[in-house]
Amino acid sequence: MTRTLTCIECPKGCRLTAETDGTRVLNVTGNRCNLGSKYAAQEVENPLRVLTASVATLGLDLKMLPVKTSGPIPKAKVLEVMPLLRQICMTTPVKIGDVIQADFAGLGVNLVATRSASHSYPARD
Ligand code: SF4
Question: What is the rounded CA–CA span in Å between residue 105 and residue 110?
Answer without folding.
Answer: 9
